[in-house]
């Protein structure tokens, strides 16, 4: 196995984002590309990431590989890549070898780990409401809600998309169908801001975000950038009587 990226910043950013949700992942490498599907320890959220093989300047594999890696260790190595660095990944027995080439060549090895997994796939649901909008605007709205509460409610109908949070204080933002791409029936669901604040860091890699949800149903948030996809699924927040 030999993979080479001429510009590893995108991979570094994505690993950094995912590492806030899960600490260990199974990195799947096959002829289509490199992908990760993982569920957080609380079984509330799922993350999916895929980088197609054609983004690599070299992509040589003899067989499909599944590499168990500690994301914090991988993140620390990827942070050593600077502008103009290239990154090469290879496998040697139970080690993942990473070589960074810029002014000098630097080599790192990470011990591969065994991770138990039932290899869940990203769910393919039909959603009542799908919103496509500027990622920075979505970030602002989620951060606004975090000022006043620990959960927010998404409300959509054919004419508007609303995000609001209520406690002793409140925050509310409304977008009309003139401001965003909106494909919606009447839908309402409530979600944890603790998780949403982790998800919105996907705005580092994409200027657009797609939010898909239905009444009291898990939501999906996609941050597409070219052929690379970073997606999250989050279970709804159920209020106790």
Characterization of this structure:
The structure is a single chain. With 241 residues, the protein is of the alpha+beta class. The protein has 2 domains: 2-111, Box (Proliferating Cell Nuclear Antigen); 129-234, Roll (DNA Polymerase III, Chain A, domain 2), CATH 3.10.150.10. The chain has 4 helices and 18 strands. The strands form 3 sheets. It has a 9-stranded antiparallel sheet. A hairpin with a 2-residue loop joins strand 17 (219-225) and strand 18 (228-234). Helix 1 (9-18) packs antiparallel against helix 2 and helix 3 (135-148) runs antiparallel to helix 4 (193-199). It is elongated, with a radius of gyration of 19 Å.
Task: Summarize the structure in short.
With 241 residues, the protein is α+β, with helices and mostly antiparallel strands.
Please outline the helices and strands:
Elements: E1 2-5, H1 9-18, E2 24-30, E3 33-39, E4 45-52, E5 58-60, E6 65-70, H2 71-78, E7 86-92, E8 95-101, E9 105-111, E10 129-134, H3 135-148, E11 151-157, E12 160-166, E13 170-176, E14 181-184, E15 187-192, H4 193-199, E16 208-213, E17 219-225, E18 228-234
Antiparallel strand pairs: 1-5, 1-7, 2-3, 2-6, 3-4, 4-18, 7-8, 8-9, 10-14, 10-16, 11-12, 11-15, 12-13, 16-17, 17-18
Helix pairs in contact: 1-2, 3-4
- Our measurement of the CA-to-CA distance between the termini, rounded to an integer number of angstroms, reads 54 Å
The radius of gyration over CA amounts to 19 Å
**Total count of helical runs of at least 4 residues:** 4
Count every beta strand, where a strand is a DSSP E run of 2 or more residues: 18
């Amino acid at each position: 196995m030999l993979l080479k990226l001429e510009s590893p910043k995108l991979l570094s950013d994505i690993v950094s984002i995912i590492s806030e949700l899960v600490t260990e992942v199974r990195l799947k490498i096959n002829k289509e590309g490199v992908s990760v599907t993982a569920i957080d320890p609380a079984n509330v959220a799922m993350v999916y990431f895929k980088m197609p093989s054609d983004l690599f300047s070299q992509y040589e594999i003899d067989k499909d590989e599944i590499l168990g890696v500690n994301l914090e260790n991988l993140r620390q190595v990827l942070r050593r890549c600077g502008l103009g660095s290239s990154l090469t990944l290879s496998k040697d027995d139970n080690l993942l070898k990473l070589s960074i080439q810029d002014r000098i060549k630097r080599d790192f090895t990470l011990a591969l780990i065994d991770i138990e997994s039932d290899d869940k796939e990203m769910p393919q649901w039909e959603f009542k409401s799908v919103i496509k909008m500027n990622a920075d605007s979505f970030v602002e709205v989620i951060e606004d809600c975090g000022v006043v509460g620990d959960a927010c409610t998404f409300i959509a109908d054919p004419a508007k998309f609303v995000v609001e949070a209520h406690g002793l204080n409140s925050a509310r933002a409304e977008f009309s169908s003139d401001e965003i791409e909106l494909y919606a029936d009447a839908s309402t669901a409530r979600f944890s801001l603790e998780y949403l604040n982790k998800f919105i860091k996907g705005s580092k890699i994409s200027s657009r975000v797609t939010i898909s949800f239905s009444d009291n149903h898990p939501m999906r948030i996609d941050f597409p950038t070219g052929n690379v996809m970073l997606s999250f699924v989050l279970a709804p927040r159920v209020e106790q009587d």
